[in-house]
Structures are given as C-alpha cells and as structure tokens.
Amino acid sequence: MPAGHSAEQRHAERVMLDLLGRDLALTLEPAKIAVPSGARVEIDGCDSGRTVLVECWAHQGPPKSAQRHKVLADALKLTWIASTMYPRPRLVLCMSDPAAARPFQPTSRTWAAQALLDLAITVHVVEIPDDIRQKVRAAQERQYR
Fold first, then answer.
1. Which of 30, 52, 121, 137 is buried most deeply by CB count within 10 Å?
2. Domain of life, per the record (predicted)?
C-alpha cells in the first residue's frame, strides 16, 4: 500500500466515484485496462463503455509539492491510456476539496492547470459527507507525523 493511501482515503475515493457518477449520470467502477503493448494499468473508475476515465484524489487541504506530482502522474496516466483508445474518452480528475483542487483549476493560472486544460482533463470537485472528510483529515494527520 503506497504511503498516503489509507483505508479512509480508499473509502472516500469510492464515495467520490459514486458522486461523480451521479453528476455524470453514469455508473463508474474501478478498471484494469490493457494497452496495445500488453502493459496493464489500473484506474480509479470508468463507465462500461469506457467513454469516461477517472482518477480520484481524496486529499483535504492545499497540496504540497510531492502531492501535486502525484496528481500530475495521475493526469499522465489518463492521457497515456486515452492515447491508445478510439474514440478518445473524457478524462476526469475527481477531487473532494476545493483547496486541494485549486492549483489544478484554470483560475489558478499555474502551468499544471494550463497543461490539464490543454490535455482536455477536467478537474471535477465533489462534496463528500463531512464524516468522511473528517476521517480523511485524521488519516492525513497520522501519515504526516
């Protein structure tokens, strides 16, 4: 299990996927996708027709530098997978905290936000229940001690 990926965060990501699915009127489930080279990659969610690919990030609060890199690695993964698919699916980075999403949104004017925009990756913020948000925050505090 990678550092920074607690049971609370995994549960929050499942809830986030369900909320995003509701917003998009789709059922989203985790998937393993094989690319033509034979490499396989896991993504947090996609619909049955693979018209939408999603990576979720449950982090609460403004991201630190290494955390920004994790989000950008997820964006690279989505872009790479999409480059092997026709038609190209919609790509979504799903987040649950506006402060965590801020550096990746077009209004932030960061290079990362512009890159996501140019790569047609949407940043979608869902509102998770407060009890789940608090559990994720507690898990983050444990991880950063």
1. 121
2. Bacteria
Q: Which residues pair with 57 in a beta bridge?
A: 95
Question: Domain 7-143: which CATH class?
Answer: alpha beta
Residue type, 39: A
Provide the terminal-to-terminal Cα distance of the chain, rounded to the nearest Å: 18
**Other residues' Cβ atoms within 10 Å of the Cβ of residue 101:** 22
Quote the CA–CA distance of 131 and 140 in Å, as a whole number: 14
> Which distant-in-sequence residues (6+ apart) come within 8 Å of 37 by Cβ?
none
The pLDDT value recorded for residue 3 is 46
SS3 59: coil
Res 1 pLDDT > 60: no
Distance CA 56, CA 45 (A): 8
C-alpha radius of gyration, the chain, whole number: 15
* Element at 30 (helix H, strand E): strand 29-34
